Amino acid sequence: MKNFIYGMAGSALIGVILAFAIVMGGWFPVAAFPPEPPLVANLIHTAYEKAVTRASRNIAVPADLASTERIQRGAYNFQGMCAGCHTPPGQDPSVQVQGMNPRPPDMQELLAQRNPAEAFWVIKNGVRMTAMPAFGPSHEDDELWALTAFLQASKTMSSAEYDAASREARVKYKKGDGHAHSHGPSAGTQQNPMNDDHDESGAEHAHPGPSSEPAKTQGHHDAEASPPKSGHADTPHEHGSHPHPESPDTDQHTSHEHPASDARASPSKIADELFTALRAGDEKTVRQLLDPAVLIFESGGAEAGLEDYAAHHMPHDMTFLATLNSEPVSRQVFDYGDHAIVASRSRLRSDSQGKRVNLLSTETLLLERQDTQWRVAHVHWSSGAAQ
């Protein structure tokens, strides 16, 4: 018996040493591709399902979950919070989704085998070690229940029904009468209040520069034509930095082939026009390009609405933009029909007045097609010191 115990203890010790060696030696597989063996995947998924079931057991589902009001609000929220990963009906998965592990389910699969309480818990708390974020810290429960209501109602939605529901929700809520973009304890205010004394390094703020219109848009995963380089500038208050959208040989475009309705039908062109207008101090054009309810995130701060932005950092952005030069790094455009995402990166430099700026800047624009034109509904700017 003693030998058996010693043998078990020795085996356990060897196992611990072996596991430690694998981790510290860098041998543990962490890449998203190729996927883990089915046995490991099933074990992880089973642990996930059991944890969600236990954690959501005592969640009370609102009695009016199926109300039209909740479903419409949820349809609006889904477009801004979820559609990029959870592919709506009739659309192709984005290139990011195709490379994710685990791959996020399509919109209609989300509640196929899950009840509303479980869905609400996942939306609120997120899922560790996946791309599923926790929306609880940034959104009120009522907004998350609205999203749950929409997912419950959309399980059998056709592509045409989804498009109609999305369009109706945008018409109702895009001006801010029903969906508050800033949530939680800091709702409606800047979460990291910013003053007008700018960081002279410029490290907190930078904007994208213009690029030429892509030569063609062929379809899903097609690459845009390479736009030319141009100057770039930005503003150094405690915001995120905005990248230069143009990038030779690195632009990518994801499209579902919607015909151009006017001269500004391209989301990429809207990104360029926004930079050009900011750099020129053209507030009139900026107002035409931004949705009145635009939500702007910069380095932890938030400006909710065009008037909030115009009253605070827009003038400083316009002033500082003239001091920076931009080198494009990349741009990707994802066209989902009536909304699109333009993601740009650039390197920003300036030696203006002896103050050296050298930043790597990123910008994400969420655009909505309103009537015949695109307008920017959400902006996220960030930057860091370039290596």
Structure overview:
The chain has helices at residues 2-24, 38-55, 68-81, 95-98, 116-125, 141-153, 159-173, 267-280, 283-289, 306-311, 314-321, and strands at residues 252-254, 290-298, 301-304, 325-335, 339-350, 357-370, 373-385. It is 34% helix and 17% strand. The chain folds into two domains: 38-179, Cytochrome Bc1 Complex, Chain D, domain 2 (Orthogonal Bundle), CATH 1.10.760; 191-385, Nuclear Transport Factor 2, Chain: A (Roll), CATH 3.10.450.50. Helix 3 packs across helix 6, helix 3 (68-81) crosses helix 7 (159-173) and helix 8 packs across helix 11 (314-321).
From the coordinates shown, what is the CATH architecture of the largest domain? Answer: Roll
Could you give the count of β-strands? 7
Mean pLDDT over the residues: 76
Summarize the helix and strand pattern as letters: HHHHHHHEHHEEHHEEEE
Tally of domains: 2
Low-confidence stretches: 175-204, 212-241, 244-251, 253-264
Task: Note the total helix count.
Answer: 11
- State the share of residues found in helices, binned by percent: 25-40%
Query: Strand sequence of the main sheet, in spatial order?
Result: 1-4-5-6-7-2-3
> Which structural category fits the helices and strands?
alpha/beta
- Major beta-sheet overview: 7 strands, mixed
* CATH topology type of the largest domain: Nuclear Transport Factor 2, Chain: A
Rg result: 24 Å
Between the first and last Cα atoms, what is the distance in angstroms? 61 Å
CATH class of the largest domain: Alpha Beta
Shape: globular
Range of strand content: 15-25%
